[in-house]
Amino acid sequence: MALFGSGKRVLLVGGEGVALFGPTARGIEHETALSWEVPNFDQQLIEAFTEQNRGDPVLILFDGSDQTYRKEENIPKLVLFDRIRYIKRKLDMAFPSYPVRASILIKPLKEPPFYLFVALPETERLDKIAADMLEAGVPVAGFGLLPAESAGLVTALRNKVFGKEVKQSGWAVLIAQHETGGLRQVVVKNGNLALTRMTPTSEAGVQGPGWADEVMREFKATLTYISRFGYTPEEGLDVIVICGNIEKQFFNEKSLPVTNFQCLTTAEALSAIGSRGISLGETNFGDALHAAWAARKRALSVPVVVPSIQRIMVPRRYARVIAVLLAVVFMGVSYFISGEYQSYLGFKEDITLRQSNKALKEQEYAQASKVFEAFGVKPDIIKGVMAVRKTVGNSGVNITPTLNILRGVLASDIKLSQLTYEHNANDVLSPVVGAAGRKNPGAGEERGSVRIFFKFTLLGNVVLEQKVTRAEKLVETLRNTFPG
Predict the structure, then answer these.
(1) Are strands 114-120 and 100-106 parallel, antiparallel or unpaired?
(2) pLDDT in tens, 54-65
(3) Pairing relation of β-strands 260-264 and 237-242?
(4) Beta carbons of 304 and 118 less than 8 angstroms apart
(5) CA-to-CA distance for 284 and 245, rounded, in angstroms?
(6) What is the pLDDT of residue 314?
(7) Which of 17, 151, 197, 367 has the fewest CB atoms inside 10 Å of its own CB, making it the most exposed?
(8) Euclidean distance between CA atoms 266 and 333, whole angstroms
């Protein structure tokens, strides 16, 4: 099953019946062919749809004789919106009573662009096929007209068969008998569809010398038609006929007024476009060639809207798109979950390793604890005492240097009668001014505050005024010695 390209099935719808082709690895397979006259046509077609490749979308390729084409030239220069309305109005005027209409802009080389109008006069059989597809539950890839979609096939075959060493003709014709009914001729000019003809199968049948003669008569009639469209032998005309190996001997290309002529079997033509047929047998029908070409196209050249088919195609196309989007979202979510799960496994493994290490450490701790249990003092008590000692050691101060400084600044006539100090280890203070004390010199960190208190007397017989003066000088000296 595939969404695009060779994953499509192709249902050819002709005047005598339908033919269903399915995709293979490198080509196309003939699944079934049904005449409109067979009993239980609808039931047999539904069974063919559901028997195999049911999930692949079905492209409907209409090959009936009642399709009409018209070339619309002299398009005025209009803005896009106005041009769309203008073309729609011209299309309605060209085919007022036709229920199915479509148009496509053609831009040929060295010629002015033009619009190709196409129309179908009735859709009764197409509505019947749409009902069968709805009941079968198969997706619809689109609806196209065989001649318009096979214009590129004619050019591709011409280039492959006659090669670049042969002068390229301006015109080319592909002629093939179709299993769905009639002899189809597709004529292109410079790669664009110029003319198509479908003639019913004659009494000569679909093979043998009588069929070859019929092909020649119809081709000569086509020459008359294209001559009215401006064809001249100087422009060149390449002709390719799809036939069986037996029929090749009945064609005399020398008697034809063409530039290049070649007969190909269906298998040879399929090979020329890089495909191959399965379950085709020995046949000169060209349906498989057109089906293989249409199946490989990513988009139709002239998409046509048939209301009954469109009602099936649009919802199922949206359903397929939503299914693809959901699949992409699911893949993205799965990738994200996979990444998160890998991370989870990594964390889980790391936690397991840490738990194992913890259990090992706890086991070692339990074994070491048994050794300490034999001591007279419990390890917890020892740890507490050591912690207290560390705290005291960190908060203690050495005031000896400070006392030495204090002794140096006291004169010989001053006698200390009392000296005390106070250490507050809980507060971290700036150095205290004067006799209150100062930070311990040489300390690496704050260890609280120290206050020094002392009493002194002055020796000798000194009057009160002199004692006051002496005390003030002492205070001044202490402030200079212990600034702060």
Answers:
(1) antiparallel
(2) 778 999 999 988
(3) parallel
(4) yes
(5) 8
(6) 63
(7) 367
(8) 48
Mean pLDDT computed over every residue of the chain: 83
- C-beta atoms surrounding 320 within 10 Å: 15
CA nearest neighbour of 6 among 51, 62, 48, 56: 56
Nearest to 405 by CA among 371, 435, 426: 435
CA atoms of 174 and 268, how far apart (whole Å): 14
SS3 155: helix
Judge whether 170 and 109 are in contact, CB under 8 Å.
no
Confidence at residue 316, expressed as pLDDT on a 0 to 100 scale: 53
How far is the C-alpha of 149 from the C-alpha of 145, rounded, in Å? Answer: 6
What is the C-alpha separation between 448 and 417, in angstroms, rounded?
27
pLDDT value of position 442: 45
pLDDT (mean) for 16-34: 90
Q: How many residues does the chain have?
A: 484
Residue identified by tokens 């093979």 is 207
**193 forms bridges with which residues in the sheet?**
188
- Given a contact cutoff of 8 angstroms between Cβ atoms, the answer to whether 275 and 302 are in contact is no
Confidence check: pLDDT of 434 > 70: no
Token pair of 137 as six digits: 């539950």
Both structure tokens of 169 = 């003709």
CB-based contacts of 268, cutoff 8 Å, min separation 6: none
Neighbours of 129 (CB within 10 A): 23
Among all chains, which residue has been given the structure tokens 């079905």? 58
The string of pLDDT tens digits covering residues 81-115 is 888 899 999 999 989 888 888 988 888 777 788 88
Tokens representing residue 372 in the block: 């300490």
- For residue 442, give the 3-state DSSP assignment: coil
* Number of Cβ within a 10 Å radius of residue 255: 9
For residue 216, which of 187, 159, 256 has the smallest C-alpha distance? 256
Q: How do strand 183-189 and strand 192-199 relate by DSSP bridges?
A: antiparallel
- Distance, in Å, from the CA atom of 362 to the CA atom of 255, rounded to the nearest integer, reads 106
HEC profile of 293-313: HHHHCCCCCCCCCCHHHHHHH
User: Residue 324: helix, strand or coil by DSSP?
Assistant: helix
What is the reported pLDDT for 4?
A: 38
Residue 41, amino acid: F
| Contact assessment for residue 106 and residue 116, using Cβ atoms and an 8 Å cutoff | yes
Q: How many CA atoms lie within 13 A of 217 on its CB side?
A: 11
In the numeric block, the tokens 């979308």 are attached to 57
Determine the 3-state secondary structure of 60 from DSSP. strand
Residues forming beta bridges with residue 429, ordered by sequence position: none
pLDDT digits (tens, 9 = 90+) for 183-211: 999 999 988 999 999 999 888 888 889 99
DSSP 8-state code for residue 400: H
Sheet holding 9-13, edge to edge: 140-145, 58-62, 9-13, 17-23, 28-35, 277-278
